[in-house]
Hints:
By secondary structure, the chain is an alpha/beta fold. It is built from twelve helices and eleven strands. The protein has helices spanning 2-17, 42-57, 70-79, 89-97, 101-105, 152-164, 180-188, 204-211, 223-230, 270-282, 313-322, 327-340; strands spanning 31-36, 61-66, 84-88, 113-125, 127-129, 144-147, 173-176, 198-199, 214-216, 236-240, 253-265. The strands form three sheets. Strands 1, 2, 3, 4, 8, 10 and 11 form a seven-stranded mixed beta sheet that branches. Strands 5-9 form a two-stranded antiparallel sheet. A two-stranded parallel ribbon has the order 6-7. Helix 6 runs antiparallel to helix 9 (223-230) and helix 7 (180-188) packs parallel to helix 8 (204-211).
Amino acid sequence: xxxxxxFLIILSIFVLFFPPVxxxxxxxxxxxxxxxxxxxxxxxxxxxxxSKVIMEHSKIRAMPKPMAGPTAWFPYMERGDVELGVLNxxxxxxxxxxxxxxxxxxxxxxxSIRLLCVTIWNSAGLMVAKDSEIHSYSDLKGKxxxxxxxxxxxxxxxxAFLSNGNVSWKEINPVPVSSVVEGVKMVMEGxxxxxxxxxxGTPVIEELNAKKGARFLPMxxxxxxxxxxxxxxxxxxVKVEPGPANTGxxxxxxxxxxxxxxxxxxxxxxxxxxxxxxxxxxxxxxFEKVHKLLKDWTPSRFVSKNAMIPYHPGxxxxxxxxxxxxEEMDRLQKSLVExxx
Length: 341
């Protein structure tokens, strides 16, 4: 009996100081990493905005991890060293299914990722110095254009933009660069006539504008031009007007747009995914404090019927509570999951 009482006392002390594993709070990580493109890119800006909101409205310490792009941070995510990532729709789809450059990188399995939310659309194009004699995409024939990016989607975007003016990659003088930021700096330094793909609102554009002036080339929105571009990269035309956040837009013109995803490792707990989604949804008005263009990252964009990869179950639970997840989304989710099997 005495031994039994001693056992109960020891057991009580253990339970008191070491509560059972599995409680919700223990499924929420203290620290998470968010993979992004390099500092100076708009993808990094989105990662910074997400980390800021997560840290200020939860107990999670969210740290942006700027790298060369998803080709660099996807392997870290697969090992569990990166929990979230910011990337475009093309990289997300190819990464999930293990296609294109991600076939070898994922050992033909595809990466263990899920969509947490759609952020904003990326308005992008090619950029020249303000006093450049290049005024259209057709003018780029024979010119020095930045490209040969390590991230395939960036290279395909650049080739898509050239095709808008019926210009092929063979008709320009390629200037190899490692990132979109480096491409703008090449123009700034006079080592290239045009940047490679660059997103409206990218911080490095302000540097070019301060030194030489910055100007986006206008795109042809005709159905024929759009069809040529979609052979290289998914997207759609958007009309952009001059404004405080639109450096490089001196008059109304069209740019190419595509969705940017915030993805999550599918091994992150449902509880953590639910909490992060909830925090981002409820505090979305704070994104604009990081960059003016993020005012368009609103809850209405979180769930997309055009999603190219399945959502995380934790996020789905929150979206169902908010009434924005319906039977059509259930069917899409099921088809995307089964397509990979």
